[in-house]
Known about the structure:
The structure is a homotetramer. The two termini of chain A are 14 Å apart. In chain A, 60% of the residues are buried. Chain A folds into two domains: 91 residues, Aspartate Aminotransferase, domain 1; 237 residues, Type I PLP-dependent aspartate aminotransferase-like (Major domain) (Aspartate Aminotransferase, domain 2, 3-Layer(aba) Sandwich), CATH 3.40.640.10. In chain A, the strands form three sheets. In chain A, strands 2-8-7-6-5-3-4 form a seven-stranded mixed β-sheet, with helices on both faces. The first copy, chain A, has 14 helices and twelve strands. Helix content of chain A is 40%, strand content 18%. Chain A is α/β, with parallel strands linked by helices. The interface between A and D is large, with 55 and 55 residues.
Amino acid sequence: MISFASDYLEGAHPAVLDALVRTNLEQLSGYGTDAYCESAKKKIRDACGCPEAEVFFVAGGTQTNQLVISTVLRGFEGVIAAKTGHISVHEAGAIEFTGHKVMELPSREGKLDADAVRDYISGFYADENHEHMPFPGMVYISYPTEYGTLYSRRELEALHAVCRDYSIPLFVDGARLGYGLASRECDVTLPELARLCEVFYIGGTKVGALCGEAVVFCGMPAPEHFVTLTKQHGAMLAKGRLIGVQFDALFTGGLYFEIGRRAIEMTEKLKAVLRGKGLPFFIDSPTNQQFVILKNSKLDELKDKVGFSYWEKYDDSSTVVRFATSWATTDEQLEYLEIVL
Amino acid sequence: MISFASDYLEGAHPAVLDALVRTNLEQLSGYGTDAYCESAKKKIRDACGCPEAEVFFVAGGTQTNQLVISTVLRGFEGVIAAKTGHISVHEAGAIEFTGHKVMELPSREGKLDADAVRDYISGFYADENHEHMPFPGMVYISYPTEYGTLYSRRELEALHAVCRDYSIPLFVDGARLGYGLASRECDVTLPELARLCEVFYIGGTKVGALCGEAVVFCGMPAPEHFVTLTKQHGAMLAKGRLIGVQFDALFTGGLYFEIGRRAIEMTEKLKAVLRGKGLPFFIDSPTNQQFVILKNSKLDELKDKVGFSYWEKYDDSSTVVRFATSWATTDEQLEYLEIVL
Amino acid sequence: MISFASDYLEGAHPAVLDALVRTNLEQLSGYGTDAYCESAKKKIRDACGCPEAEVFFVAGGTQTNQLVISTVLRGFEGVIAAKTGHISVHEAGAIEFTGHKVMELPSREGKLDADAVRDYISGFYADENHEHMPFPGMVYISYPTEYGTLYSRRELEALHAVCRDYSIPLFVDGARLGYGLASRECDVTLPELARLCEVFYIGGTKVGALCGEAVVFCGMPAPEHFVTLTKQHGAMLAKGRLIGVQFDALFTGGLYFEIGRRAIEMTEKLKAVLRGKGLPFFIDSPTNQQFVILKNSKLDELKDKVGFSYWEKYDDSSTVVRFATSWATTDEQLEYLEIVL
Amino acid sequence: MISFASDYLEGAHPAVLDALVRTNLEQLSGYGTDAYCESAKKKIRDACGCPEAEVFFVAGGTQTNQLVISTVLRGFEGVIAAKTGHISVHEAGAIEFTGHKVMELPSREGKLDADAVRDYISGFYADENHEHMPFPGMVYISYPTEYGTLYSRRELEALHAVCRDYSIPLFVDGARLGYGLASRECDVTLPELARLCEVFYIGGTKVGALCGEAVVFCGMPAPEHFVTLTKQHGAMLAKGRLIGVQFDALFTGGLYFEIGRRAIEMTEKLKAVLRGKGLPFFIDSPTNQQFVILKNSKLDELKDKVGFSYWEKYDDSSTVVRFATSWATTDEQLEYLEIVL
């Protein structure tokens, strides 16, 4: 069965896999100290225009969010996130597990509003009892969001201004960054994004790698002894090369960006198919995840023919579902979708 | 200056203090194993009509919430609470500190709605991705609430029914339980309350003691090795007698209930004073905390004359403030308030 | 039955209790912001000769150790302690509960050896894999130790020198500090002790108070937002006055030191009684806890006549037991002991 | 430069890598729900002779230890381990990070002694104060140990008997299990090992995989909602196939065992080389890690010629170093070693 359920259905982009094959028998030192990790870090710093950035590789997204947030926050601080943010909803309480509150603010189409964040923080400091409350210590956003939407440059600037005013870092979860940067609606470049936050991560798992995310501390130093903290969180691979080699391939010859562009092209075609079938869009997403509303009867009929993801209940007779493209999506798959829909 | 800022302005009720003085030189074993602790536990079980209940003493309210919630919840669970609940707002993230999410639901006058809780939990289990989310593992309410309001018996029954349907405990924070039970609007007795939840605590600190809360596991066994867990949380006093003697006094001759009645009588007088001065009530509270809206100019004028608590911003020119009574409130204090208001 | 089982068998020293009674009806602000807390802090700073020290009050010893250690340590650090230290053995894992390792070093008569600490830390940094290990971030000692022994000034200086060489704080658990300072073998004053460590606490629970310990950050600033962290750990009393009033009394007119002296006088008499009965001492303790070896048959015979504490197995036929004095010990009690032994 | 520094110098065994290449474009569901994970689990259950076992895949060893130990232990429990155990020394405090104490017992050649464990636990329960101490809740051993040594069947039976007597699980860290099972000194089979413990893991990272360990709950049920707990610990890969495909290959046609045998053959040759050069062995290891004592002058001379691992200081002029073989070790590499040594 052909599936559009997610952007992590296949293994690695062929060029990435090829790099793993090619380097397989090289003897390399462990724990991320090998030459491919070094090379990948350099290429990422170059691509971000941040020669001073500190780059680290982690295996997965939840792990990255947990590691970065819990080591950047101080004991008395929590992290502000959209109520629909990944850390608020779908990480099984991974942030709270490390002792910190996720301060959930209402979101619009998956996005945090800079004014709402400012109101929250200024309200916190205005409250005479605020010493009995967890302090806002970071703002977390995802780019693209969990609903596929993008912050405009202006929105990012506004959020970053709030963070700077209160001297707290802005952290951008870029699990699908490649698909965001390639979107027609994206109005920032990677170097610009890096200047609009203190720390972000470049998602590999969903953008061509078998696993792996690259954390980039671009506007703040990494927490002291981050390697030890990574080990302590269980987030360090003995064969760090596994991620280093993949990111080295992704950032060679612009592959990471090419993967994004290709998926977005396929998304445009996917949107045309969905639109052509008269399916209402739940949200106007400019990236590789598309959310449409299916009648439950239609959903039941389709689910043995094509893969898609349950997202959320829409109403008693309808459900929001997700169709996603990736680097691996083909024209043939879309043609099949058009037939079965 | 006379103050109505809170119900913990004075030390202990004279009869409680007297018990401490009277027993001071008795040699008693440590860590809550003394005869006064035993006696107090027996009296509490009697007052609750729960001969099988397990009773423990803890020094303060936040500590009690932290200890009970973190030891009753399993690792994959969080606790449902009102967005205005004490654990959501004013405990500095003490629950998250132990690794668990506080699942904040909207509240009305400080109260959780049973239907909203049921919708949340049923929605959780209906979500196909719920294994990637923290499980609802307990419902926390306060009685009275942080806004002085009370759940009716019917409301408690409805909440308890939801909890039973999903086999999770209902935990009642009774930091001001004495003032709730004595309210004219209260339609449950202490034994009835004990049957409507699995665990609750009887607040001492705000109801006549220098410190101390009594946790009552009435509808579930206490977590295994609760004594060890209490020690591990830093919540065990070497001189456990300090709390045992006080609760023994509070539950001798109905003192705990008498304290509640007296404070509620004073509250009625307080409300008359506030109403007489034309101050709008922010909420209709039937217990010992009263919330009125003060113009900021009035607030500035008053603050050197009488004590009250800042609660929250009402609008740009007004503020919600709290006036509270306790066992220690006197007619003279209320007369003074009438003069200065 | 008369007991020498511990130094926390009675309530408060009469002068301390009297202060609680005298101030009972004063209206005081909550959470340690009252005038008695302020006054007590000032008196403690004066007694320590540290006008700049930050002083905080916490209810109990385990809580104090947990709060101080977990908020001073950084995420990648553990605390060095004697294998027999209170945090290593008898706090139910309270330090590990907060995420930090207790690095247990062998001890001699309850004491850490400065050279052993230096070897441990220098060995850590010499290890090429030390980034995969928790960093030594603090040294914890107790004064007196759990075996009643005292570090000499020279030993304290040596330990402090190691800590300074590695820029980590020395933390002194002074649960029984009053009994240590009053010992004939003590060769430091309170101000000298305060200069030989970065942070310590002055025990109240075992030295005349109903509860309460005073944390003194004398050689380092308190962790940022320590009040919020205290609340988050469940370690803040609403009626902070309870501890403030007691410490104010303890540090008025030298009462704290007088309590120590009195207990040590009684200890000398106790030692004479034990020695007179030919009981072998397990350790040569110069403070208020005395450890003797009892034949198990003798132990069984005595245990219904006089109170003492089981300490540890000595051999198959003998047990180490503890007899302790305190401010409350009387000549009559010692005469009774002489009769029943 | 040729290196014997560890058994994780190369990528994956060619057959494992080939499986990743072959399946790369198959669309598979995420988070370990794919057919290769299922197939691999079935093959592992078969190989262990445990048709009822629950099997889970985790990316790395520290993460596995952290996840298993913290979710199996109850709040009041710690884990017993050898002082030289991986969780005691080289996991950066990952166990304590989750709130549990590692109870370190002396070890002999990396091994825990069953009698010492029994004495520790029986001493714990005999201690009248044990409710103030963390409870022993699990025994952790590694097979082979960190020093390459193996427990005999009799030693495993003795340890397991202690665990059963106290109703606590025995957990075996099998990071290098394949090299242990293939050793000439090994006197247990995989099914026998599975019956001698409650839970263990089969190491992939060091035995032919790019990453991945297989946790096998063979003598106890997995902790409830282990999937959610795995997500919460940041230990779940979106592309769970990455580990499933690899373990499916490792347990097809006995590859896992073949890898072990091959490495052990190479170890025998390695030992002959080291012995031939007159290097003293620090320990008599029957598995793929060999520890020899090098004069520091020799160490300096060698370190630019061949790779090996610093292990620990032996004395002022000598150092213990490790040479390891793996599935990837070749005769040519050993010939080179013989030349340069």
